[in-house]
Fold each of these.
Amino acid sequence: MTVAIVTGAARGIGHATVEKLAKDGWDVVAVDLCADDPHVGYPLATRAELFALADAWPTVRGVVADVRDADALTGAVHVALDEFGRIDAAIAAAAIIAGGQPLWETEDKDWDALFDIGVRGVANLARAVIPAMLTGQEPRHGRFVALASAAGHRGLWRLAAYNAAKHAVVGLVRGLATDLRGTGITAVAVSPGSTDTPMLAASADLYGLGDIGEFAQHQLIDRILQPAEIAEVIAFLCSPSASSITGTVVHTDGGFTA
């Protein structure tokens, strides 16, 4: 039996990751805020989306929690331990997009939302889940995977705060992997390119684009990625086959950063 916690699970890449892991026989605690945020300029996932996902898979438990709330994530860890008895992987997929202005015009609310959800949320998950992983008997085989972005490696027009947040995720993962040296637990960042999610639609709105397909021109594969493609890579990184991969970034960006 293998057990994972996935944040940002109600839709997008997080949703696809829960489905992929469940199909592969994992037990999953699927975590999402399930509410709109006044500091985020587009609708976020709902309780209905989260619990429809949980209801579709008998091995999935839905938990409503805000990744900015460390105690709430500790509660999700307790759900995993109480329901399934262990934690083998944690996937930090919760994130938002904000911006659309030059950095000097970016408002504090946008900066704070990007870092509180997209960076502090990753750190909160690590601080909640790693101690539970470390209680496992040796040899341990834990996995921590955080969603970064091609924006963590390439500057994007009028999204400097988002760039900074995703760079921070990469740095966090590198430091975490170093802290985990010799424990048997790995830490990896995954950096997708433009992927067909509600967040990409929100990005198109920031740029005044009528179609997310316009982002495809930045990717060598000449198309928008699908969440399931990213989920496949995440599932691999959670598997025993990925035991040699830690402290680095896996670029699932369709050639965006080539």
Amino acid sequence: MDKEIRLLAISGSIRQNSSNTALMKAIIGLAPENVKFTIYGGLGDLPHFNPDIDIDEGPVPVRGLRTQLKEADGVILCTPEYGNGVPGVLKNALDWLVSTTEFMNKPTAVISASPTPMGGDKAHASLLLTLKMINAEIVERGTLIIPHITLKLNKEGIITDPQLKQELLSVLQTLEQACY
């Protein structure tokens, strides 16, 4: 059996019926048995970033995020695009990590998905800039921009587009290999 790989999955959306959260869960369903996921569900619980309260270990919700990142071998992020950028809740979470080392050299895959023809390309680019600044290891061939997500993922969260399924399997495999 292959080594167990622990991945932290983060959706950039806190919307209940988020296509990016559904996509993230679909990706988890594609993973081999040795890849174990933890879904980070605390984006909405994080306080607004403020360096004045980031003393000692930081606020309790921030400590939870940092701990989950420390324990993960790698990270996969799935995000929509809001207002031509990264959703505020995701950017806020990343701001809490700027002065720490949890993301340093952490293998990371980045996926943006949108119902628009652009697939969230501006959020994707912005997210990559922030992750590189905090020294995340963006896995080569571990990024994907998905336009028209609502035509490729049904309401039950099942990937209906065979090409997308293959692309996601490739991203997942690349991330898994980077975690060894």
Amino acid sequence: MSNTKTALPVLEPDAPAAVAPCCPPLTERPLTAEEAVRTAAMFKALSDPVRLRLFSLVASHEGGEACVCDISDVGVSQPTVSHHLKKLKEAGLLTSERRGTWVFYRVEPSVVAAMGQTLHPSGS
């Protein structure tokens, strides 16, 4: 069994352009240069319609994770799906775990919460 079952990290430590969901709401204070770079990378990864759809399919899938076999019918070839999933992982938006021949993807709840908080702070 993989050790990713316990406390999955939001980020992969070796991902060069990883995005940490650490930025404050936009209405709280101006972003620092570093926060702006990380936040832009996250939203840039989602700016492609296929990536946004894949992210949505994973995020809304029953149990909070989806097998690549369940989300690959998005109108593009399998290699293109793999490319887009890789980009979403590099941006820190998805984590994955191989189980046998299949790869399962998960959106960490902290990522979704941070994205929402950045754009729409609670109480406003």
